[in-house]
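As agreed, record copied across for absentees:
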Amino acid sequence: MLWHELTIHTTEEAVEMISNFLHEAGAGGVSIEESGLLNKKRPNPYGEWIDDVPINSIPEGQAIIKGYFSEETDLEATLSEISPRVDELSEFGIDTGDVRYEFKTVDEEDWATAWKQYFKPIRVSDRLTIKPTWEEYAPQSTEERIIELDPGMAFGTGTHPTTSLCLRTLDSVMQGGEEVIDVGTGSGILSIGAVHLGASRVLALDLDPVAVSSAKENVHLNGMEDKITVKESDLLAVITKDSAAEELGVKLPVQIVLANILAEVILLFVDDVYKALQPGGIYIASGIYKNKIDVVEQALTKSGFEIADILREDDWVAFVARKR
C-alpha cells in the first residue's frame, strides 16, 4: 500500500502541537526526528544502551515531522488545513522557526518498520527499563523492572525527554499501593511503569482510539490486564459521568494523577485533577516546554495545589504538585 508523506521542517518547541495537527488531519502515523536524536547524550546514571548510529544533520533545536496519509488523501487540501494552524502557534508564544513543507509517496513497509532499528532497550530510572518487544535484553539486577513495549502509532517510547522525565519522577514519588489515573496514556507506557513501581490499580485514558488500542495491547504484553483499565475519554470526562467504580478500575479519589501532554491541554483541566485526587495526593504534569513554566505553575497554585518539585530534562519540565 502506498502512502503520502508530508514532511514539516520546524523546531523542537513546536513538535507536539504540529504532531497533534497531523493526527487531527487524519494522519495514519507520525514520525519525529530531532537534532542529534539518535545519539543525543542526556543525564543518565544508568548507562546508555542505544546502539551507536551516525548523528543526523538536523541543526540544534530543529526538528523534522512526517505525517503519513492514505493514497486517496488530497494533500493540498490537508496542507491548507494544517498550515494556518501552524502559523497561529506564534500567537501562543511557540516558535516554529522557518517552517518548510515537502511531499512524496512511500511504501507502507518503508515507514511502518524502518524506525524500529533506532528503538533499543534503555534504562530510564532506578527500577525501570523500557524494552521493545522485538529486542533481546536480560535484567541487570533483581530490582530492575522491564516495560515491554510496541508503541505502534501511539505516542510514548520513553526516548522523548517528556516521557522519560515522567517515569523517573514517578519512580521517585511512588511508595506502593497507590491508585493512579494516567491522562493521555498514548502507548500506555506510564501506566505500565506505575504498576511495576507498585500501583494497585491504574485507569489509563486517551481521546485517540489508536492510542487506546495500542495501550490495551501493551497492557496485554506486560500481563497487567487485572491492574490497568484502558478507556477512551476526553481528558477526565469519563470519571465525571455516572460510571461504576468497577468500570473505571479505580476508586475515586485516587492518590496519583499523571498527565504527559501539552501545557496548553494541562491548563484545561487543572481543577478536574484537583477533584480527582485525595487530600495530599500528587499530580505529575509533564510535557511542558520551558517557556510555559510560569503559566502552568500559576494555574496549579490557583487551583489549590502546592508545588512540591519541578524537574527538568533538556528544554522540558515536569511538575510535582500536591493537593493541599
User: Anything to note?
Assistant: Residues 2-116 form a domain with the Alpha-Beta Plaits fold (CATH 3.30.70.120). The CA atoms of residues 38 and 54 lie 8 Å apart.
